[in-house]
Specification:
Layout lengths: L1 E9 L6 E10 L4 E5 L6 H8 L7 E6 L2 E2 L4 H6 L1 E4 L11 H11 L4 H14 L15 H13 L5 E5 L7 H16 L3 E5 L3 H7 L2 E6 L2 E6 L1 H7 L10 H8 L1
Parallel strand pairs: 3-8, 3-9, 6-7, 7-8
Antiparallel strand pairs: 1-2, 1-4, 4-5, 9-10
Helix pairs in contact: 3-5
The protein binds adenosine-5'-triphosphate.
InterPro entries: AAA+_ATPase, ABC_transporter-like_ATP-bd, ABC_Transporter_VariousFunc, P-loop_NTPase
Keywords: ATP-binding, Nucleotide-binding, Transport
GO molecular function, one term: ATP hydrolysis activity
Length: 243
């Protein structure tokens, strides 16, 4: 579960609010899509959920643990795939995954089970011995996804995860996100790929200039436009209307 309680953030003291009074709850077992035009505040929000940035106002809880008051415990509960993931390029894939397993104190038995399982699922088993610097962009993205899941976190956060993935890898990732939520865990991701959001998400939020302009199931968002959108109309129409 992710709870975002009236969170605001500005980068410069007198600058505009990058995130403005954001209030959002994402329960267990849900895939939640975070949409919005460039500069809307999606990455800033994700960085606050993961404890990279501190909110100026408000608080965030991950699985019931406050990221500001108990950051280590909250971070243990998160698997984070950053935007344009570029992990330690001088390590091999296996060295990186082993390092991440150490960071998250994953037992030897558990990592010996999870690394081959996840590597096979993402078709990375044959390149784990290669340096990450030799990986393609999509392969870097996949090793970052595997690393984020190494400790089976209850909350999985991904910033623009489909960028750089070929159609097959993208489909594998979507399957994994579904499997994850079906196991009662929370998946929160930002995307510009509206077709992915439309097909994958249980609920969506649309952010504009740091503020929520819509939140709910796709049907609820359609109704929120005063019935101007019918069932045939896509999220793209809705998105353009809202933003
Ligand atoms: N490090 C920073 N310093 C100053 N301003 C920043 C910084 N990072 C982001 N901003 C500003 O904060 C606002 C929100 O940016 P953010 O990156 O959160 O948007 P986004 O929705 O993730 O955009 P995109 O879809 O383009 O990735 C923008 O106005 C941006 O210029």
């Amino acid at each position: 579960m992710i709870w975002i309680g009236n969170v605001s953030k500005r980068y410069a003291k007198t600058g505009p609010l990058a995130v403005d009074g954001l209030q959002l709850t994402v329960p267990k077992g849900e895939i939640f899509g975070f949409l919005g035009p460039n500069g809307a505040g999606k990455t800033t929000t994700i960085k606050m959920i993961t404890g990279i940035l501190k909110p100026d106002e408000g608080d965030i809880e991950v699985d019931g643990v406050s990221i500001s008051r108990n950051p280590i415990e909250a971070k243990k509960r998160i698997g984070y795939v950053p935007d344009g993931a570029d992990p330690f390029s001088r390590l091999t894939g296996m060295e990186y995954l082993t390092f991440m397993a150490d960071v998250y104190r994953v037992s030897r038995d558990e990592r010996n089970k999870r690394i081959p399982e996840l590597a096979e699922r993402f078709e990375m088993q044959d390149v784990l011995g290669d340096l990450i610097s030799s990986y393609s962009r999509g392969m870097k993205q996949k090793i970052s996804v595997i690393a984020a899941l190494i400790h089976s976190p209850p909350v999985w956060i991904l910033d623009e995860p489909m960028v750089g993935l070929d159609p097959k890898s993208s489909s594998i990732l979507k399957d994994e996100m579904r499997r994850y939520s079906e196991n009662g865990k929370t998946v929160f991701f930002s995307t510009h790929v509206l077709e992915v959001a439309e097909r994958l998400c249980d609920r969506l939020a649309v952010l504009k200039e740091g503020r929520l302009v819509a939140e709910g199931k796709l049907e609820e968002l359609r109704q929120g436009t005063g019935g101007q959108m019918n069932d045939e109309q896509t999220l793209e129409n809705l998105f353009l209307e809202l933003t």
